[in-house]
Design a protein that fits this description.
The structure holds two protein chains of two kinds. By secondary structure, chain A is of the alpha+beta class. Chain A is built from four helices and nine strands; from the N terminus they run βββαβββββαβαα. In chain A, strands 1-2-3-9-8-5 form a six-stranded antiparallel β-sheet. A three-stranded antiparallel β-sheet of chain A has the order 4-6-7. The chains are: A alpha+beta, B alpha+beta.
């Protein structure tokens, strides 16, 4: 079966995003599982800086050759930075999903929300439950 | 998943790491490594597709040719044995029942290669409309089909074929062997690149697939899935049934005039097709390039002057051109090259421009 790189130091959402804490902000991207499922990413649509995002609500769109998928916010807050490189290099989501493929940085309204996210073990179990591990 | 049909190569696809998805009632490989990589392999070297889900319906008997002339939009009597033509099965309203390739095997033997999703519908349609004295057999389940496509295809197939397949011209076919298995090899395809389609007995299909892969690896051959097949056929502006064609669409609206025997007529739907053409088609198929950022997808609205004027039937990023392309139906006045329209992508208008099709033409 497929192997996925799920770094231990990150947190995860059930919509296959990873979340990294930086002070009271979080950096968000999609997991290795998500990028493998999507295949070649050709387009990423991200919100403008200053946009408010809400937990569980779509904040952007990711397109592979074959399909269009929504990106769901793992926390509520306002967007303070977006990865503008993805406009010209969407393939960075495939080549480096935890690095150059990052998507947005969000200033959290409620920093406790971070603690409610899955850890790596929890996310792997969640993938397993979905029959994807 | 249990009620999905499997092609004879299903185990092999799993072993090759394919992602399998349901398509037209079959479990089919959508991609192995990457759609982009497989697409490029076909344009630059070669790709090998298992398309055993497609159907084969055989007509035989003293009236087989007369039946085919009645059933399909292209001329059949003039088709010499060993030649293939593309044509449409049409209904009495001039809509398309299916788009098919028709193979003349002998004086009184023909077969139609049909879309997987339409096998049962086509079979019933054909049985209902053949002339007396034609035997109809659906041999879809016992037949495997591999498509070897791309500029390196002749060199690769040449290593395994029992005849000089490189000498076979486009839209010709012959009975031969591939890796010692009896095969019907035709110089046809659905990618816009040079290619062969190889009809085999079901049981021989996985072995021939593996033999072709081994023979072709050093020439850049890769196994390729339905994802790449779709982007390749879109670049070639080849219609896909259910997208550009359906039971209500006239072949002339789809721009398929050269596959319709308009002067001779005499086939099912011919009168309705002419009547509709005389009345003027409210919409015609056009190709477009996306000029702004974004990808147009099937069913997205096409807009002009602030209102919807049409709809996208197929759209994807073109790996060869490096931009998004698509096909869609628009009023004839807006279908001319250079016309600027917009596609509505998630509530936002993105500029598109009507262009000549095919978008990419690599055939000899």
């Amino acid at each position: 079966m497929a192997e996925y790189d799920i770094p231990k130091q990150l947190r995860y959402s059930r919509e296959d995003e990873w979340i990294r804490l930086e002070g009271d902000q979080v950096v968000v991207g999609v997991t290795d599982y998500a990028q493998q499922q999507l295949g070649d990413v050709v387009f990423v649509e991200l919100p403008a800086v200053g946009t408010t995002v809400e937990t569980g609500e779509p904040f952007g769109v990711i397109e592979s050759v074959k399909a269009v998928s929504d990106l769901y916010a793992p926390v509520t807050g306002s967007v303070v930075e977006v990865n503008a490189d993805l406009a010209d290099h969407p393939d960075q989501v495939n080549s480096d999903c935890y690095g150059d493929g990052w998507m947005i940085t969000v200033a959290m309204d409620d920093p406790e929300e971070f603690e409610a996210l899955l850890d790596a073990k929890g996310y792997l179990e969640y993938l397993d439950e979905r029959g994807e591990d | 998943m249990s009620d999905l049909k499997q092609t004879p190569c299903a185990e092999l696809h799993r072993r090759l790491g394919a992602r399998l998805v349901p398509f037209a009632g079959f479990e089919m490989p959508v991609q192995y490594a990457s759609i982009l990589q497989e697409h490029r392999a076909v344009r630059e070297a070669a790709g090998l597709f298992d398309v055993s889900h497609m159907g084969q319906i055989h007509l035989s008997g003293p009236t087989a040719v007369a039946s085919a002339e009645r059933l399909v939009s292209c001329p059949v009597a003039s088709l010499a044995p060993g030649r293939v033509r593309y044509g449409l099965l049409c209904n009495e309203e001039g809509g398309v029942v299916d788009d098919v390739t028709i193979y003349r095997e002998g004086a009184n033997e023909l077969f139609l290669c049909v879309n997987a999703a339409n096998i049962e519908k086509d079979y019933r349609w054909i049985v209902r409309h053949v002339v007396e004295g034609t035997e109809v057999r659906n041999r879809s389940d016992e037949t495997g089909l591999l498509a070897l496509q791309g500029p390196a295809c002749a060199a690769i197939l040449g290593e395994l074929a029992g005849s000089d397949v490189a000498a076979l011209r486009r839209f010709r076919f012959e009975r031969t062997t591939v890796a010692d298995a009896p095969a019907t090899v035709s110089r046809t395809g659905y990618t816009g690149s040079d290619g062969f389609e190889i009809y085999l007995a079901e049981r021989d299909t996985p072995r021939v697939f593996e033999a072709l892969l081994s023979a072709g690896t050093s020439r850049g051959l890769e196994p390729a899935g339905l994802g790449a097949r779709d982007t390749l056929r879109l670049e070639a502006a080849l219609p896909l049934y259910g997208h550009e064609l359906d039971d209500t669409t006239s072949p002339l609206e789809a721009g398929l005039d050269r596959f319709v025997k308009r002067e001779a007529g005499g086939f099912l739907g011919a009168e309705a097709i002419e009547r509709r053409a005389e009345a003027g088609h409210p919409r015609v198929l056009a190709g477009f390039e996306v000029e702004g950022r974004g990808v147009a997808r099937a069913e997205y609205p096409l807009r002009h002057g602030g209102r919807q004027v049409g709809v996208v039937t197929s759209g994807a990023p073109s790996p060869t051109l490096g931009k998004a392309i698509g096909l869609g139906y628009v009023p004839p006045a807006l279908a001319t090259e250079g016309t600027r329209l917009a596609v509505e992508v998630r509530g936002r208008e993105v500029a598109v421009r009507i262009v000549k099709t095919p978008f990419v033409d690599q055939e000899r």
